[in-house]
């Protein structure tokens, strides 16, 4: 008897006219976003993958070459040199930026006057045009008339060629990148802190826990989902850094090779030299690196991210 009941299929309820109208309205509303993703993201990505297997000239005439672009890329020292510069940028800016953003968020989460003013001041660099930011900082680092060297000389020191010295140029660009991103990440982390239930802090205060203990025992563990999100987005943006490097370091600069990132190499290869097929292969390398790092993070987050 039980088997007979199991075999009997319950008839599916037909959708009413109202439900059908709601479905149509929903599809109409998501259609612009879906079309935008298909036209500006998905199709260009598919086209880029195809280009990576072709020799594409300046007139977009393509000739299929198979894995020739990837074989050339593996043996290209310039690709791995720029990839190494990009890794340096990511390794330094991500942890330092995360620490600074968390510190500033904790300060603004405290009961201080003028919090809205500080939030605005810290957030402004992230909404300022990258080209404008790069030009201002390039002037600050200027060898003869820069504010930084002027301040150092005023204190009795000697100036330095910050953007032409291969030992310091990349670190100067890192400072600009941190200045632009710390405020944005701070706002996200601050929102995460304000989402933590105050009951935990009240219970810890009753038990005699200090503010520092509360921060490391309550705030940090409860903030790990937000930290995880900020970490992923920071790594992705770090691998894609281009505009500040392009604007601040010229081709004739002695520090050109020490500061060029893999995205800058992609841009030069595609638009300066016209080797679009080879440039497409470089972009696939960037995509693969970001995907590998993201997958590792997604697997590793189970051990340290607290979603409770």
From TrEMBL:
InterPro entries for this protein: ABC_transporter_permease, MetI-like, MetI-like_sf
Principal subcellular localisation of the protein: membrane
A Pfam family per the record: BPD_transp_1
Membrane topology according to the record: Multi-pass membrane protein
GO process annotations (BP): transmembrane transport
One of the record's GO cellular component terms: plasma membrane
Keywords of the record: Cell membrane, Membrane, Transmembrane, Transmembrane helix, Transport
Domain ABC transmembrane type-1: 83-297
Residues passing through the membrane, by range: 23-43, 89-108, 120-140, 169-191, 227-249, 278-299
Subcellular location as annotated: Cell membrane
Gene3D superfamilies: MetI-like
Family, per entry: Belongs to the binding-protein-dependent transport system permease family.
Record protein name field: Sugar ABC transporter permease
Organism of this sequence: Blautia faecicola
